[in-house]
Amino acid sequence: MINLSLTDLIQMVCLSRSDIVIRVRSGATDGVICIKKGQVLHAETNTLQGERAFLEILRWKDGMFEIQSSGNLTSSSIDKPWEHLLLEAMREHDERLDEGRSEPSADGVEIAVPQSIPLLGAENVATRVDIAGDHWEEHNQSAGPGHGDAQPGTTSPRIIRVLVVDDSTFFTRQLKRLIEADQDIEVVGIAANGREAVDFLSRNPSVDVITLDIQMPVMQGDTTLKHIMIRHAVPVVIMSALNPGQINKVMDFLQLGAVDFVAKPAAHEEATEYGGRLRALIRGAALAEVNCFKRFRRSDLHAGPDHQTGLEQGEKALLLVGAEGAHMEWPRLPLRQLCSRGIVLGVQRISASLLPAFAECLGELSGTVTVPVGDGSSLRPGALHLGNAGIDADFTLRSEPFRLDIEARSSGSLSWSTGLSSWMERLSTALGSRLSVCILSGSEPISHDALNGLMINGSRLIIPSTPTIVCKRMIQGVERYARENSIVFTGASYENLKEVWAENASHE
User: Which end of the chain is less congested by CB atoms within 10 angstroms, N or C?
Assistant: First the structure.
């Protein structure tokens, strides 16, 4: 017997895109919920079918439910997303609370686990529940608090205080364990919806970072974010079950002031690796100066045609580098004019699965042809080529026509810091003085070896002096290194970036 709520189980199974049948019994009434590839396809009780049956089952105040393999599932009576169904169930529960007629929820009812029935492929029920639940805790306990996150002999930074906002009690339990595996990060509060989050901040203003779900009852994520930005100005990381089709929704949150976003962990994802990435993102977001954020507005200056005919296209390249807080810096750049002057390669810290969708959104916002970069790409003037430095690649300069070819050296993926350093070093080797590098928002310093390689090969640095930069640590680190090593760099605003780049290139 495992203590788990029915709503948590449904969410866990749908997020893992699995196939199961859940049989429920409450008193003399039976119910069935069928899930295939992470979608609720069918529900029925003794008297109901479809959405009405699903909501009725979630109203039952007690009972037992049993997991079975889906077999040859053919019935289909529900076409709404599982998120909508759970939100509707929560809405009904809230209405009953308001009317004073609430019934106890299904939280805490027991799951009868028949060990002979396989679940989610070859794994049995006990294995899957363990992996999705307490197995994460075991991974992190074995590593010890803060394992892999702090360097020996260094002074521990102050505690980063995190508020988790999510309506899933199952997920928040696991998220708290992952976050607090770092001894320098503490979850100081958990809110089940936006209203609870805003109330918590009013009583406890000393919060450094907020992780915020998109879909929640009572107060949705976007409304919550608006309240936070206006009244509290705390860095927000959007955390939701993301897929490429949802990137437009995420961009809406970034335009409202969120610093960054991360997908909730998939069922197959290794907890230690995911936890490390999540904690790194939280540490970076904690450094954000969200008071510097300015809502993006489409600008005729950047989106219109380039009438400055004095700036001719040349055989030169511009590397733009952005990480935390940089997503809404890209459309502020004069991308169309820059791309008409030479090869423009953008590197953004983002997962490979979401890169194409982000590139498409950025193209729509900026009015610039934006192309995702991968193995076999050929970079030419006329488009923004956008990558994430995730592949170990070689760059080869071609002259007829002027272009830069990319070829992967291995099939493995690189971490952000390793990949960025590698790309900068190899780009500067291939392009030399034809390369200029412009640094955008980001929290993680660029390695000194990569910066030193730029200088050795005659490449040039451009550092924007704009008040809208939210995460300044990456820029400040580059600027400090340049001053300490007597390296000349050029300051630029977004408005004159193309002239500064052209001036840099004229010194070849």
Answer: N
- pLDDT, position 6: 81
Residue 174 neighbours by CB under 8 Å, 6+ apart: 133, 136, 137
To the nearest 10 degrees (0 to 180), the angle between helices 135-143 and 271-285 is 70
Q: How confident is the model at residue 440 (pLDDT cuts 50, 70, 90)?
A: very high
Residue listed under structure tokens 């980001």: 442
Token readout for 447 is 């390695």
Q: How many secondary structure helices (H) and strands (E) does the chain include? A: 17, 21
The encoded tokens of residue 459 equal 């490449």
Question: What token pair was written down for 478?
Answer: 């580059």
Q: Could you report the per-residue pLDDT of 147-180, keeping only the tens digit for each?
A: 334 444 444 457 999 999 998 887 888 889 899 9
CA triplet 292, 298, 300: central angle to 5 degrees?
A: 120
Percentage of the chain modeled with pLDDT above 90: 36
Backbone angles phi, psi at 425, to 5 degrees: -65, -45
Domain contains 140: no
Judge if 227 and 368 occupy the same domain. Answer: no
3 state DSSP class of 183: coil
Contact 352, 390 (CB under 8 A): yes
Number of domains comprising the chain: 3
Phi-psi region of 458 (alpha: psi -120 to 50; beta: other; left: phi over 0): left
Cα separation, 201 vs 199, in Å, equals: 5
Q: What are phi and psi of 360, to 5 degrees?
A: -65, -45
What CATH number has the domain bearing residue 230? 3.40.50.2300
Nearest Cα to Cα of residue 382 among 424, 429, 345: 345
Helix, strand or coil, per DSSP, at residue 289:
coil
Asked if 494 contacts 334 with a C-beta cutoff of 8 angstroms, the reply is yes
End-to-end CA, the chain: 72
- Please check whether residue 210 is in contact with residue 165, taking contact to mean a CB–CB distance below 8 angstroms: yes
Task: Give me the chain's average pLDDT, please.
Answer: 79
Is 209 in contact with 173 (CB distance < 8 Å)?
A: no
Measured in residues, the chain has a length of 508
Q: Is residue 116 over pLDDT 90? A: no
Say yes or no: 355 and 264 in one domain.
no
Q: At what angle do helices 82-98 and 51-59 cross, to 10 degrees?
A: 50
pTM above 0.90, yes or no: no
| Same domain, yes or no: 94 and 171 | no
